[in-house]
Amino acid sequence: MPKKPSPAKKAPAAPKKKAPAKKISLGAVVPRGSTAATPPAPSLSPAPAASAPTPPAGFVALDRAASSALSKPAPIQVASGPSVAAEVLASATYAQDFSSSAPAAASVAGVLTTAESWTTEEASADAWARYVSTQKQLAWSAALSVSEKLRVEYVHAVLHDATIPSRYPELARFLGAKSAQAAHSAQVAKAAKKKAAKAKVGA
User: pTM, whole model, 2 decimals?
Assistant: First the structure.
């Protein structure tokens, strides 16, 4: 009796390829033993002798509706305004190149120069406003730190001399301002709570 042929052996499965390991970004590597650079803390400076300029008398800022109605430049127009002004002024054939109804080169250059000047002024004013705000906060923090030390001595002095508050009325008001403000806030909160409870009962 003929032998049955043995079944063919299955080829071994190909090994699965491992997915490439995901790279994890660790950000900027800081050398061991060193720390990341931090910007220096702002320091308090004396206020300038010359005050910031004040707007002309009668000035009224644009409201939202009026501001929205005005034409706004594209960033590239703001950047190229000065070069456009210089270009049209330098052209010897500007009047011949454009019709007589076109605005004069001096007029075009003038309005662009004015717009560029106020753009620069606004950037300077914004930077100055941030600086002023920072200095104001630092100055008041320093002033309140010193006045808190004085307050301790003031309370001690009043215990020994009852005439201190009448002889230093502004100082008394200044040192007691936060306590008075806290008392007022507590009274307002208490009144609001009482009103809410009364409204709830009446509902």
Answer: 0.65
